[in-house]
Write a structure and sequence with these properties.
This protein is α/β, with parallel strands linked by helices and 242 residues long. It has a single domain, classed as P-loop containing nucleotide triphosphate hydrolases (Rossmann fold), CATH 3.40.50.300. Helices cover 39% and strands 22% of the residues. An eight-stranded mixed sheet has the order 5-6-2-7-1-8-9-10, with helices on both faces. Strands 3-4 form a two-stranded antiparallel sheet. It is globular, with a radius of gyration of 17 Å. It binds adenosine-5'-triphosphate and magnesium ion.
């Protein structure tokens, strides 16, 4: 029995909801969704934590333009707060070095990160996941008993196929699925919605392809005013906000 597992439960006891933003494929907008969702919830005065668990490609700090602030050590680690978001990422420990880690090292790092971080009282802890349903997903399911998944896809047959696998896996593991977001939509077609609903999963929202998004990266005010954020805000009525 690893004593850190008990500590993790203790560290998260004042966190309302734990939401992992996941998806089958890479580059479909998971980090953008996790970051902008966190930013929008914080703007609405919810207490929000954002944890970037993408060990090979952490990017939430880049999307949100978080620099020059660092976690503080005090009987654990206190995440820095930026625009109302308490932010924690492996990037603070790997710096700009490419991370050379195998599955077991990553598992240990996740346990360590969850065990040392003092989130305090939060309404939401949003977790940005790496692509696919690999070790990190399995660890998150194993370590965080109250985790719920928000799944992202694009209107691509390939993305949809991998998302179907993710959804099947989550269902089998009896993990709650909040629903699916269709990102980077360019054509008005209901086929992704239909396919998701056929699986008995809630289709949450469409996010249009946003040609202005690249210019907003790194600028939190611009992100909040972007069409992407406008579309993300539409899912709030379906999130059972507390
Ligand atoms: N709706 C959108 N419109 C335009 N560009 C988008 C949209 N969503 C995401 N992007 C862009 O697509 C790229 C990938 O997005 P993002 O990093 O959020 O994906 P990801 O799924 O987290 O990728 P990874 O699997 O590598 O972690 C980024 O350059 C982002 O700005
Ligand atoms: Mg990402």
């Amino acid at each position: 029995m690893d004593p850190r597992l008990t500590i993790i439960a203790h560290r998260l006891e004042n966190v309302g909801r734990l939401i992992a933003v996941s998806g089958g494929k890479g580059g479909i907008g998971k980090s953008s969704t996790a970051s902008i969702l966190s930013l929008s919830l914080a703007k609405m005065s919810y207490r929000v934590g954002l944890l970037d668990l993408d060990f090979y490609g952490p990017s939430c700090h880049l999307i949100l333009g978080i620099k020059g602030v660092y976690p503080e050590e005090e009987k654990g680690i206190i995440p820095p707060e930026v625009s109302g978001i308490r932010f924690m990422s492996i990037v603070y420990y790997a710096e700009d070095n490419p991370l050379m880690a195998r599955g077991i090292d990553i598992s240990n790092s996740i346990i360590e990160l969850l065990a040392i971080t003092r989130w305090g009282k939060l309404d939401f802890l949003i977790i940005d996941m790496p692509p696919g349903i690999g070790d990190t997903t399995l660890d998150v399911i194993r370590l965080l008993k109250r985790i719920e998944f928000l799944v992202v896809t694009t209107p691509s047959k390939l993305a949809l196929e991998t998302v179907k696998k993710t959804l099947e896996m989550l269902k089998e593991a009896k993990v709650p699925i909040i629903g699916v977001i269709e990102n980077m939509k360019v054509k008005d077609s209901p086929w992704i919605r239909d396919e998701i609903e056929k699986l008995g999963v809630m289709f949450l929202e469409e996010i249009d392809f946003d040609t202005s998004l690249e210019d907003c990266v790194g600028d939190r005010e611009k992100l909040l005013a972007s069409p992407f954020a406008r579309d993300i805000n539409k899912i709030f009525p379906k999130l059972d906000l507390i």
